[in-house]
Amino acid sequence: MKPPLKLFGFLFVLALLQAGWATDRALLIGVSEYPNLEREHWLEGPVYDVELVEKILLSKRFGFASKHIQKLSGWPKEEKSRPTKANIQAAFRDLAEDAKEGDQVYIQLSGHGSQQPANADPKDLEPDGLDEVFLPADTSEWDPVTKQITGAIVDDEVREWVDAIRRKGAFVWIVFDSCHSGTMTRGTESDQRVNRRIDPVALIPAEALASGAGSVRSIETRGDFGADPEAQVGSSDSMGGLVAMYAAQSLEPTFEMPLPSPVSHRHGIFTFMLMQVLASTDKALSYRELADSVSLIYRANGIFQPTPLMEGPDVDREVLGRETLPEKAPVRFTGRVYPGVGAEIDAGSLMGVSEGSVLEVYPPAVADRAEVPLGTVEVVKSGSTTALVKPKAWRGNPAVPMEALAAGSRANVLYRDLGRKELGVALQMEDADGVLTPFSIATPPKAVEQDVRKLHITAKASCSFVKDAGEAEWIARFHSGGGVTLLPVSGWSKAFPTMAGQEIGHQFGLRDGTEAASALQRVARARQLVGVAANGADGLRMEIELLRFAPGEADGRPVTHGPQGRVLSHGDEIAFRIKNHSSVSIDATLLFVDSSYGIYALFPEPGTVDDNRLPPGGELVTPKLEVTADTSGLEQVVALAVRSTRDRVSFACLEQPSIETTRGDAALNSPLGELLKSVVYGEGDTRGLRRSASGDHATKLISWTTIPR
Predict the structure, then answer these.
(1) Could you give the 3-state DSSP secondary structure of residue 200?
(2) Is 265 exposed, middle or buried (0-12, 13-18, 19+ CB in 10 A)?
(3) For the whole model, what pTM was predicted?
């Protein structure tokens, strides 16, 4: 017997009601002021992180209601709105009480992080003997009685608070934008980058900190707030889902800086990039895809550390969404017009829209003849997330009338100017006592004058020399006793003194200025090559996968973006699978960029006859490769593909050790080759590719971290 129609109607209404009962909630915590600590430990960015995240959550796309967003930020007059430990704990408790099955909860913690000696609980062993802590606004000095930093929030407490929410059946996405176990070499007081970490030695007596590190139980490195698989945020039997993201891995720095321009408010770079990805597309993304996108933006902008960390059982779930949304046009006009300067668009350098690029403009989507182009504009000034454009005729296309650049008008990139970027290098002198003194290229100290001159003569074509380390990407440190040390500003850190002074990050000790110049040239070339790949086009629709082979298995398994990105170990056997989804044959090349900025051809090897041509719809798996112990850290593969011609094309000639003698290779006479010669090596006039040429090539970037087994 069929059920009565009334029953169907009742069930339908009930389903609608249940769907409506689910609530999106958020707790946004931004700790900038620390009244109990010295002013040098105060931050600016966390309060602006909160504002930025709130704006995204309230947007039409995500639709959070303001009444369901609680903010604890800054140091307002209203005490209950301050991000103190008691208020933070109460806010988590309120979330747990109000949450119900089907709710989505976003939690943001921006501020300082640190470490302290772990407790003696045998059920909660810390591999490094230290607890990661988040520092609320009422953080104070070390308490010798409790043997804790007064007011600090320990990672174990966060796990308990999150567990309570998840046990109600709610899904939790929690983001930590703080540094928990690393420090960063700073330049001068005007350094644009400010580290979000307070060194434990500033709060904890040396003997107390040593007692914690002295109880190290393994040599494994654990990540922030539960990156250790045995100590994830939330327990495995919790009902609700979980994704946790961290700005940096264990011992890595993270920082805040003015974004999107040097005169903007400071933001945590991780929070800013997360929100930028979400704001730049209406396409539904999984949390895994979101983290991968942020990593690509880091690489495209020369940020090789920190490496964001991610965990949780639901990383393949859609970001704060329940349905797939339509993709929007690549670029839109905001409606802001500045007479004599230009009109503003909602895309900038982080999306690959650089100065000199040309865009084709279309009317708003609701207008008549919406798909008929109006003409072209040129990008005259590009910030991180916005740019200014002016009408300009280009290659037979008319300039757009200024009045047509109204809000809602759309644009596609016709020509992407990838412009060759010089590597910013700050100069320092270190005397016999270890004192560092910054100096300019024009007025070097007498003791190192000869070495500085050698550096300048050889590297001036690829480097710009600045006095302020806050404007630099690398530091060249000249030693009064001879020799030069090169180290990156972003990503250089030292572990705590209690850990035997172990240093992480890459530094290079060179004999003189000539060697240092050669090394900086290699860094600049590798960065440019990675930038081209990360910002590149996909006119040929090429796909690349990293495969890892288990012992005894013939078929490799894809290595996806996991909690710590993609991670390989010394001794792993890997290969790459390339798929051609385009309608024409392609010639593919894989170039390996190691953590020491060397560039090596993986496939095809130079001088070999390996078949790197793929027919339409074809795929190939490269020969197996072994991950060696020669280098560790961030490593990358750049995939280049061009439309096949009569002669097979390979970019193996771009190997860095032999680049000077092989640059005449025929592959570099192709449109993509001309671009690489110009952007990477500073030769020729081609700085970008117009749309027709971009349809004949594809570039992809895949990166991973190599660690000792």
Answers:
(1) helix
(2) middle
(3) 0.59
